[in-house]
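Saturday, quiet lab. Running sequence design on the structure tokens for the scaffold JK sent over.
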């Protein structure tokens, strides 16, 4: 889990995925990962919590347009 957080926090995943998707899909994914990056910092400013929630909701709506949850659940194997 810590390794995954480091990939997001240090923007390694964003760097690796740049240029692999069509531009609208890439923007949606990068916005979603940017939201995760903000939340994975050592200190989250709680006075900005409402703006974080709003940004995350917007990013998730656009993200789901390009990566429908039905498709994601099909690709993820069921728990054992």
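Result came back. Writing it out in full:
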């Amino acid at each position: 889990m810590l390794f995954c957080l480091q990939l997001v926090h240090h923007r390694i995943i964003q760097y690796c995925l740049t240029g692999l998707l069509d531009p609208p899909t890439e923007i949606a994914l990068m916005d979603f990962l940017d939201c995760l990056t903000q939340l994975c910092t050592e200190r989250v400013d709680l006075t900005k919590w409402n703006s974080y929630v709003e940004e995350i909701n917007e990013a998730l709506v656009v993200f789901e347009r390009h990566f429908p949850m039905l498709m994601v659940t099909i690709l993820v194997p069921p728990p054992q």
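Notes for JK: The chain has one domain: 8-67. The two ends are 19 Å apart (CA to CA). Ask whether to fix the surface positions before the next round.
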